Amino acid sequence: MDDGRFRRTLRIGAEHVDELGHVNNLVWVRLVLDLATAHSNSVGLDTRAYRELRAWWIVHRQEIDYHAPAFPGEEVVEETWISSMRGARCIRESRFTRVNDGALLLSARTTWAYVDAESHRPRRIDQRVLEALPVG
User: Fold this and answer.
1) Span 14-42, mean pLDDT?
2) Which of 36, 38, 105, 110 has the fewest CB atoms nearer than 10 Å to its CB?
3) Residue 29 belongs to a domain with what CATH number?
């Protein structure tokens, strides 16, 4: 993560595809959420850290654009970054591109709400989180 973006590579497996032979829409949603979790974990904000802060992130809104299908065996670059963080809200962008031709497969914008772990009410994002997840 050099520019505030978190990147990793995924090989599409049989578990990702549906009866049409490409990555299922629900699987894409899961991949977007898993990528956000991996990014957070990579900067030390794992489940334990959020328990200590007594706060959680919950999805408030998610917009997904499906640009092209992905098929078994293809290698995909997963990329995510924070485009805005203010008050109790964070906007996270995600992009998935095919390695062999650079084709954009999916882009997503997820609005996350930072909530108190007990009351489930929105609260200001802790300074520790702001420092660990830079806007980029």
Assistant:
1) 96
2) 38
3) 3.10.129.10
